[in-house]
């Protein structure tokens, strides 16, 4: 499972914290409200029961009263129901209450002359039973319905649950808002790092944006400055070395050429050695030229309007290849918005790669859509194994076909230069199967205008 990000974790922490706090407050408020309502209803019921008990006692003191009439004279409303326990039996105003409604323990306490209060459930409804001792009677009881209190408590509980949920949501929103603003400097650092990785070495952070992150911004800018200095130093070193090697290489090439032309006047071993020297000098010259080109790839692309169709045909003529190899897709313009030098080098390197390792190019295609120019070069060789399709665009890496077909020939920089030129245009280079052979594709965003 993927670990959630920092913003998600902080937002979840805010939400959980708000939910726990609101739940605790809701439980406390619910319990306090419930107790308060029940205590208030109990005090009211007890006062009413004692008052009604006094009325019943007065009615019983009249001699031989009508007990049912006395109970009916009580002003109890619909919420209270009286019940009188005399030595000769139980008396009530309605038939829905009777001796079974009063727990035995409560009857015993009232019979002993002790007032008692108990919460019970009668016919599934909550009720409060108040027992009051009476002279000449075993006890007076009054049932008070607690249904209204229970409904009020339920409404309060639902309201508190809703409030807890809303508070948790508000906490999550607050956490998201807080992380969004607190992580904004880190987002700026990530964006700056991406731009630098894309080649924009002028990107810097503003140290005055956040006083608490001044040290981070300054350190980041200092790191980028040192990185740019190191890249410039390495690029200048490669360029300087390559340029310095050109003069002695030209001298060596001239000397090797003389030796090669006079090989008929040499013995077999000397002629063989002279041929090897000439081949290695030629390869060394190609390596130096590729290093110079590689040093230039670090510079930004300078786009201009280029007739890529004519440039492709000129490359074919230069390599003694038929211009009919060049194919232009329908609707694709002849002129592209590209760096002329980079595009020409890319095309030349792909054609040379096909000649050297792929049995020769069989098609040079120019196409594209949605503003992306696509250059494809097909060859008739053995193809590129899947395991080599990524690494062959790295520097000084030569695929298996290069080793098998060309021995030690090649510098391992041709396709690396192709990838660098494509990257300078914001594009990419890759190799595909075409069965048989391989298809090298270079995509250049913004080339079609």
Automatic annotation (TrEMBL):
So where does this one cross the membrane? 155-177
Where does the Histidine kinase domain lie?
240-448
| Top-level lineage group | Bacteria
Domain HAMP: from-to ranges: 180-232
An MF annotation (GO) of this entry: kinase activity
* Subcellular location(s) of the protein: Cell membrane
Q: Which reaction does it catalyse?
A: ATP + protein L-histidine = ADP + protein N-phospho-L-histidine
Which Pfam families does the UniProt record give?
Answer: HAMP, HATPase_c, HisKA
Gene3D superfamilies in the record: 1.10.287.130, 6.10.340.10, Histidine kinase-like ATPase, C-terminal domain (3.30.565.10)
Its placement in the membrane is given as: Multi-pass membrane protein
Instruction: Identify the EC number(s).
Output: 2.7.13.3
**What UniProt keywords are attached to this protein's entry?**
ATP-binding, Cell membrane, Hydrolase, Kinase, Magnesium, Manganese, Membrane, Nucleotide-binding, Phosphoprotein, Protein phosphatase, Stress response, Transferase, Transmembrane, Transmembrane helix, Two-component regulatory system, Virulence
What sort of enzyme, by top EC class, is this?
Answer: transferase
Q: Which cofactor does it need?
A: Mn(2+); Mg(2+)
Return the protein name: Signal transduction histidine-protein kinase/phosphatase MprB
Classification of source organism: Bacteria, Bacillati, Actinomycetota, Actinomycetes, Micromonosporales
